[in-house]
Amino acid sequence: MQNNSALSNLIWNQNAPIVLSAFATSLVLAAVLSLILGAVYVRFGRALSNRKRFAQNFLLLTVTTTLVISIVKSSLALSLGLVGALSIVRFRAAIKEPEELAYLFLAISLGLGLGAGQLMVTVVAFAVILGIIVVQHLFRKRSSPPNLYLTITGPASARLTLTQIENVLRECGLAAGLQRYDTTPEGVEAAFRVAFPDTARVEQCQQRLRGLGEGIRVSYVAEREFGD
Q1: Alpha helix locations (H) across 13-97?
Q2: Quick check: 94 pLDDT over 90?
Q3: CB 137 within 8 A of CB 44
Q4: Which segments of the chain belong to CATH 3.30.70.260?
Q5: 9-63 pLDDT tens trace
Q6: 148-222 belongs to which homologous superfamily?
Q7: Which SS3 state, helix, strand or coil, does residue 117 take?
Q8: Checking phi first, is residue 54 left (phi over 0); if not, alpha (psi -120 to 50) or beta?
Q9: Distance between first and last Cα of the chain
Q10: Exposure of 120 by Cβ count < 10 A (0-12 exposed, 13-18 middle, 19+ buried)?
């Protein structure tokens, strides 16, 4: 009987009230670290999506995770309730870039550490991870740095192949690295990181690519300015 009472108290009683000063410190630190993470992602990330827009999610995600963990860490019942609530959540937006998932996981990890009160450990680990990201960027091969993201989309009727695209890029004298290649019954989409020496070469390559078939679309997204 006593064992049942003890178990009930463990599950339903909130034994560790939240200290508002420590909670506020965790929230402020979560906001600061998430902003730093967003700036690092925009500067050193390599995803094809709009990195500035995607990085805006880090602040809300980190602060919210800190809030949730701070509330549920003192109560097993609240923790179980959180699991049940999250089980009904469905994410419809597909994350195509593994890098995006890695940064989201890092933002959640910051919230978990700060919400659990492990401020020093979280800050030190975050600094080490940022250092690794910067070092990787510095040692990345820079012989012909790309300055544009090139996306070629063709309908199924054009019968566009990856070999055709790569041949055109080689004929234009471009250094290109394949980032994504998707084939569907509706058509083909290929994305490259490309180093264009000047804007004239952009127009020349665009005309050659569109000449591969009818309905082919070519789009560019600037990663950095020409001559940088």
Answers
A1: 20-44, 51-72, 76-86
A2: no
A3: yes
A4: 148-222
A5: 544 455 556 678 888 898 999 999 999 999 999 888 876 567 888 888 899 989 9
A6: ACT domain (3.30.70.260)
A7: coil
A8: alpha
A9: 74
A10: exposed
